[in-house]
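Re: your question from the hallway

Yes, I did run it. Sequences:
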Amino acid sequence: DGGITQSPKYLFRKEGQNVTLSCEQNLNHDAMYWYRQDPGQGLRLIYYSQIVNDFQKGDIAEGYSVSREKKESFPLTVTSAQKNPTAFYLCASREVRGRGQQTQYFGPGTRLLVL
Amino acid sequence: AQKITQTQPGMFVQEKEAVTLDCTYDTSDQSYGLFWYKQPSSGEMIFLIYQGSYDEQNATEGRYSLNFQKARKSANLVISASQLGDSAMYFCAMRENYGGATNKLIFGTGTLLAVQP
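Structure:
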């Protein structure tokens, strides 16, 4: 089955600790995205990657880092510089169809909690 | 600046009835895309329906249809014959930079739909 997987489902971070969220897709999509969702709000873009070995900052990139060494994988690291990391993190990849339709499909998400 | 507005924080609907979820948007672009996603309590964002700004007909996907009124900048989601499994948070989103490099989605704050038996 094709899809997007994220792990872990829940993640706990201690003060001063870096943690890495995994995102893998087997849909053969070029572009991948990381969003953050806070309670009662919509999603905000952290980072995106259009192609392997290339990525760009989104609206709220401070305190986060990413890599894109493989087409299938787009891990997100939440660094100690991110002072309010408690949130729900969603990874997405983009499908390109005809007539310009470009749809983002999402993984199941990771809930990050700070201890 | 591009913006999505969902004015209904929560809604109730009786099972088997139709419901309309409101969405208005603001953009100066001529080409853009509008999306609706469903987010059940599990958290996953599920793509429901897409409408391109140049599409002349309203999009439909099974029980979902999008009432697209370009002049009013609205893209309301209509769910026909509501089912208990439709209870979830619904997000309207717009793709920024149509065909451009970013293809970022801008999301509204969502509408929580509760379907009552």
